[in-house]
Write a structure and sequence with these properties.
CATH superfamily of the largest domain: Glycosidases
Shape: globular
Number of strands: 20
Radius of gyration: 23 Å
CATH class of the largest domain: Alpha Beta
Strand order of the largest sheet: 11-10-9-5-2-1-13-12
Distance between the termini: 23 Å
Bound molecules: 6-O-alpha-D-glucopyranosyl-D-fructose, calcium ion
Strand content: 15-25%
Amino acid sequence: STDREWWKEAVVYQIYPQSFNDSNGDGVGDIPGIIEKVDYLDALGVDVVWLNPVYESPMADNGYDIADYRSIHPEYGTVNDWERLLEELHDRDIRLIMDLVVNHTSDEHEWFQRSRRGDPEYEDYYYWREGDPEEPPNNWESFFGGPAWSWDDEREAWYLHLFDEKQPDLNWRNPDVRDDIFDMMTWWLDKGIDGFRMDVINLISKTEGLPDGETGTPTIGTEHFADGPRLGEYLDEMNERVLSNYDVMTVGEMAGGMTAEDAEPYVGEDGPLSMIIHFEHVHADVGEGGKWDVVELDLDELRSSLHDWQTVMAEDGWNCLYLDNHDQPRAVSRFGDDGEYREESAKMLATFLFTLQGTPFVFQGQEIGMTNTTFEDPEKVRDVESKNFLNAARDRGESFEDVRPLLEARSRDNARTPMQWDDSEYAGFTDGEPWIHVNDNYTEINVEAARADGDSIWQYYRELIDLREEREVFVYGEYELLLPDHDDVYAYRRTLDEEALLVVCNFFEGEPTVELPVEDANLLLGNYPDLPDEQNDEIELRPYEARIYER
Ligand code: ISL
Ligand code: CA
């Protein structure tokens, strides 16, 4: 809906701390490294930083396995460093939202340690099941492959983990668990943060009795742990006891197949969440077999998903607009062209990201068109999900070379190679040996080069950020789909009182001609330097061309 809120007008920049900037040469990005770059964020013009987890962690899943919610991972710095970061951001009017990971903890968290010992205060903090150590309690699968249960020798029982075995699921049915989580959230909010991005928040309620799931789906059991029966109740309680006491932005990540219609109760005026990270549109190049089933981009699927979210959220709710994040391959490589048309297609994707209704999220490196990487050697693979996938393939008798194209298309490591700052060794990310390889293209694709070039992707992002700040129609304008069935082009109108925008994006290399009412309109921004000299309602689009007209 179009009620005014600061977070609707904001542009969010996502920082993956491990890969952003290393200040001390140990090869791992850190908080002092981020502080060195706050002026960079200010120059880009973003309003909010979403920081991926920086809490103490054994790093089985790069920080999504938290051992202590109230401390900073030593490799990233100290609580003092974190406080300095918050201050430096706030000094520049940039807000900070933290990652809230409360579907699970690390198995090294004190709660789990005490739970596995059978400490009466904590014994019910997780999902434990006794039984035959050879046979898991049900057939649920982990999102990272393999069974969702592991046997614990100490407690002599099974425990549930929807992700890695080092990420046991918290039992939200236990009111003490909720009390502890809500206290922890309050503790962070009282430090002055501006909100949370909530990790897989729709997995916190499971079907009573934990029944077997239907077989033949990519992650067996999903219907029993995604959008579970008490999800709404838990989120409302969180809102009432914690969130409603602050003016915050809350972004809920919802795994599984959440649709706009499903999302409605959680967002909107009285909902606990400002917006939802869903996965519908990023499935437009995913086949029925799930993530590793790589298919060609289906523009119709991408468009109809986004169109649906645009329409439903306009009534009540708000959209989170993203193409890239730390779990997704680079958008320019999957939805654009990371070869000949890298610049054009990255700008086209940015055009549509910034002109739909919602809050745009930019993932580090996206603003310079960073691309997917290559894995010449299995030793280069870092991510737990990719490693499991590779091991499972090998167990089936496939070789590394067999699955290498899939890793290069889909591994989460594609998003996690170091930020490319300049063309010096290791792209200026570190003076040491980076924890993950740097993409070979850093000599060409880097921040320094992009800022020096007046026509770069980086400058284009700057312009979009400025335009969005200057013209309310970008934020609050009503959305209306045009050319609904076009095979190659996504076009729409945005209107707010007297202001109107018309956006047209060519998603492919072809050069279609489309008919749109632009004769009396001005070209506000486009991704080709030269303007077409003759303006009428027939537009001949060039490869990956994007235009924003205003009337
Ligand atoms: O990334 C995925 C598939 O490649 C998803 O299954 C992903 O794991 C899911 O979207 C949840 O993601 C979030 O929670 C995970 C963590 O590994 C991700 O980095 C995080 O974004 C578990 O905490
Ligand atoms: Ca470091």
